[in-house]
């Protein structure tokens, strides 16, 4: 009881105390707070934070975006995006005096921790040197060199004395396309016993590759105000060797080994100038072997020095007084100025009055600059300039390049149909006659580097649209003209049938699938509207990497999404995507397809590659079908293109599945879909192109498959302006000869064997590639 009374007395006593001493309490509190505030102010001076957060996936900005220009002002104007959605662009309202939109360079002092670590010599016995070799490769040259380099270093290690060899662990090789940058390039891997030496073997590409993403990462890491400007200063050192081609890029000014030079500069910054050995460069056509050998010897010497406690040598910490800081900063600033953001953010350029030539402004979402210089609109490059090697390579392969980023080519099936020798599988399944079909793309660029791609590694790749945008009218007229020109060239070819030749002079179908990624083009909806206006149907294939464009896509006659694998690792291996969030993008595309299944005629296209995406993946594919619920699933075998690119990706004829294997896979997939009660069945086949069609039961009417399309009905639906879906333009019954089990060869056409072998019935499970060739 007593203690309870005491408790109730307390507040009263406290109140009395307060009344007696409140003046001195208040004064003491004020003095304490002022001292604390001053101490904090001088101890941690404030950095200016950026106005806008770092953009994550660019699609977050697809519909609306704004740019931090000034603390008080956020100037935005409208810009038309896909589907006429309005976004925000700074271009039209930009006053002359506007602050420079280039990223702010956050200059930081090297922290005490970093400096200490920088000077700390390698202590043999306590730690071991761990050489890590990072490489990137599209064509395979650098990958082969990287693997050889690592085995060279490791066998050198074996020949050292036991004590010396014990000072370092085996060298490891990492492909920059596969690793998480954060694991190596924000801080070194955490292993107390290891001290890392970062080595790089890099090619240079003047098209977008994974190296651009890597360089951006290095820049961002250095400029991130939240971390030390030299966060990798704890590593022992680094060195870069670049491969380039002096035939087309003869000097450094003209771009010889430019990306290796860039990586060298940024590594100097984020390691606090720890260049262990100077940048090496080799011309793949002449001296790269000798240069690489010299560089390798240099690396070995540097490692020996490190292990014997000599560190990285005289001069500036490790770098041997190379061109550093200020000069490199200035260069980098120049580079960032010309970088453009994602097409998903930028939308169009020519329609907003800035003209195709002027294009969107370079904008950085992360930071702002103090500079009061006026904005210089960057000159946008052409995706495939006529002078580029890409142009030469593509035209050599038979493409007609239209404008600066579109292409058209007549496919072998069009030629075949002109000669009365059969159409592609799209005739069997959907009633498209190949000689009436134009194959084209408004974007030669793509964001994958699929191992089975038959483009010989020559197409431009990129995650963002950084090029000049051609108007859709120009592309439309250009591709038609290119197509008709190629058809006319077939006039004198033996076997071309007069009536088919005449018919071919009126395009009725357009396959937007040639190369590249059609929905990458910012005016894809306007382009397809032009096709439809001329009553040309549209079959659009996309690679499931651009969810926002997919969501904004208007009606097309048939919408394809390439499903090249059933799980993340397999997809990474086979598509070699440039987007780091490729799996998330892929997943979102499937969800979008599911939402659109009553508006668009959706198709999953599976391209099976033996040894890559078939084994044990049936259930995975069935899961994806359950997720996206497409109207159709087309399953086809890969076609081997026999290029060095495909060979270096480990692809050979043995990866091409036999038709019997495709059939087996389809039967298993169908069983799995049935087990899940999803309502699909095997509808049709075209054994000749190794292709089978699974269809949703929505396309089975009165027990008969109706996979064909009523094209006229499709155009009528479009013209009506009413909402409509795939069920509104279902065409005729699938012909008997195209049904599953019947082979799918049009009986009107002639079967020809180039080598004069006897004609064989197709669809019997015999290997397709051993059968008829036309
Ligand atoms: C499309 C393309 C663009 C290239 N751009 C450059 C360049 O700008 N500068 C350069 O020095 N080499 C350039 N090269 C040459 C490559 O860097 C060189 O062939 C390298 O060995 C390729 O390595 P990889 O086979 O490992 O991909 C280019 C090659 C191609 C095919
Ligand atoms: S659909 Fe493709 S393969 Fe078939 S004819 Fe048209 S372009 Fe050629």
TrEMBL record:
Q: Name one GO biological process term.
A: wybutosine biosynthetic process
Source taxon at top rank: Eukaryota
Q: Residues in domain Radical SAM core?
A: 430-678
Which keywords, in A-to-Z order, does the entry hold? 4Fe-4S, Iron, Iron-sulfur, Lyase, Metal-binding, Nucleotide-binding, S-adenosyl-L-methionine, tRNA processing
Question: Could you tell me which pathway this protein works in?
Answer: tRNA modification; wybutosine-tRNA(Phe) biosynthesis
**Record-linked InterPro entries:** Aldolase_TIM, Flavodoxin/NO_synth, Flavoprotein-like_sf, rSAM, rSAM_sf, tRNA_wybutosine-synth, tRNA_wybutosine-synthase
Q: Which family does it belong to?
A: Belongs to the TYW1 family.
Give the protein name, as stated in the record: S-adenosyl-L-methionine-dependent tRNA 4-demethylwyosine synthase
Organism per entry? Tothia fuscella
Organism lineage: Eukaryota, Fungi, Dikarya, Ascomycota, Pezizomycotina
């Amino acid at each position: 009881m007593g203690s309870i009374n005491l408790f109730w007395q307390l507040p009263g006593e406290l109140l009395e105390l307060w009344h007696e001493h409140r003046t001195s309490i208040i004064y003491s509190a004020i003095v304490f707070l002022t001292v604390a505030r001053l101490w904090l102010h001088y101890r941690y001076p404030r950095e200016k934070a950026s106005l806008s957060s770092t953009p994550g996936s660019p699609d977050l900005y697809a519909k609306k975006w704004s740019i931090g220009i000034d603390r008080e002002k956020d100037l935005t104007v409208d810009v038309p995006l896909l589907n006429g959605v309005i976004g925000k662009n700074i271009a039209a309202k930009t006053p002359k005096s506007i602050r420079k939109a280039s990223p702010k360079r956050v200059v930081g002092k090297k922290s005490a921790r970093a400096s200490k670590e920088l000077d700390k010599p390698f202590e043999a016995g306590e730690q071991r040197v761990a050489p890590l070799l990072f490489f990137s490769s599209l064509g395979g040259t650098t990958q082969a060199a990287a693997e050889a380099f690592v085995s060279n270093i490791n066998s050198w290690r074996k020949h050292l004395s036991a004590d010396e060899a014990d000072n370092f662990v085996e060298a490891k090789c990492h492909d920059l396309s596969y690793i998480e940058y954060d694991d190596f390039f924000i801080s070194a891997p955490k292993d107390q016993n290891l001290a890392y030496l970062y080595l790089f073997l890099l090619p240079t590409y003047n098209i977008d590759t994974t190296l651009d993403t890597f360089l951006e990462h290095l820049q961002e890491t250095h400029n991130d105000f939240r971390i030390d400007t030299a966060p990798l200063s704890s590593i022992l050192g680094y060195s870069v060797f670049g491969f380039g081609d002096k035939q087309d890029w003869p000097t450094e000014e003209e771009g010889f080994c430019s990306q290796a030079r860039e990586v060298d500069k940024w590594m100097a910054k984020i390691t606090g100038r720890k260049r262990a050995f100077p940048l090496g460069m080799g011309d793949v056509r002449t001296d790269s072997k000798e240069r690489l050998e010299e560089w390798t010897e240099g690396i070995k010497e540097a490692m020996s020095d490190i292990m014997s406690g000599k560190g990285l040598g005289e001069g500036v910490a490790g770098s041997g007084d190379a061109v550093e800081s200020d000069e490199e900063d200035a260069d980098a600033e120049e580079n960032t100025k010309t970088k453009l953001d994602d097409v998903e953010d930028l939308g169009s350029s020519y329609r907003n009055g800035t003209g195709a030539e002027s294009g969107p402004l370079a904008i950085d979402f992360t930071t702002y600059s103090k500079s009061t210089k006026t904005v210089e609109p960057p000159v946008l490059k052409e995706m495939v300039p006529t002078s580029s090697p890409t142009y030469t390579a593509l035209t050599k392969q038979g493409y007609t390049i239209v404008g600066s980023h579109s292409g058209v080519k007549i496919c072998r099936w069009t030629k075949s149909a002109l000669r009365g020798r059969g159409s592609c599988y799209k005739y069997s399944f959907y009633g498209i006659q190949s000689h009436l079909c134009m194959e084209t793309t408004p974007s030669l660029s793509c964001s994958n580097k699929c191992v089975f791609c038959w483009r010989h590694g020559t197409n431009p790749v990129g995650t963002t649209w950084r090029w000049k945008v051609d108007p859709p009218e120009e592309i439309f007229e250009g591709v038609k003209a290119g197509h008709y020109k190629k058809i006319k060239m077939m006039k004198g070819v033996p076997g071309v049938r007069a009536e088919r030749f005449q018919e071919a002079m009126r395009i009725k179908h357009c396959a937007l699938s040639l190369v590249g990624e059609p929905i990458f083009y910012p005016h894809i909806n306007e382009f397809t509207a032009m096709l439809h206006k001329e009553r040309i149907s549209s079959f659009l294939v996309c690679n499931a990497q651009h969810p926002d464009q997919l969501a904004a896509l208007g009606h097309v006659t048939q919408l394809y999404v390439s499903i090249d694998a059933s799980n993340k690792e397999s997809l990474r291996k086979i598509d070699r995507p440039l987007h780091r969030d490729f799996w998330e993008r892929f997943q979102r595309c499937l969800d979008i397809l599911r939402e659109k299944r009553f508006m668009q005629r959706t198709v999953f296209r599976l391209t099976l590659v033996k040894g890559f995406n078939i084994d044990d993946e049936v259930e995975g594919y069935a899961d994806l079908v359950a997720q996206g619920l497409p109207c159709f699933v087309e399953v086809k075998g890969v076609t081997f293109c026999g290029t060095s690119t495909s060979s270096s990706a480990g692809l050979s004829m043995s990866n091409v599945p036999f038709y019997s294997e495709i059939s087996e896979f389809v039967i298993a997939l169908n069983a799995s879909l049935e087990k899940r009660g999803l309502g699909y069945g095997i509808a049709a086949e075209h054994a000749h192109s190794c292709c089978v069609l699974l269809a949703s039961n929505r396309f089975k009417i009165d027990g008969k498959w109706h996979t064909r399309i009523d094209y006229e009905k499709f155009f009528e639906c479009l013209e009506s302006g009413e909402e409509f879906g795939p069920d509104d333009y279902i065409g005729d019954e699938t012909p008997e000869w195209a049904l599953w089990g019947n082979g799918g060869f049009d009986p009107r056409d002639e079967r020809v064997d180039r080598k004069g072998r006897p004609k064989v019935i197709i669809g019997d499970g015999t290997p397709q590639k051993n059968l008829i060739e036309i």
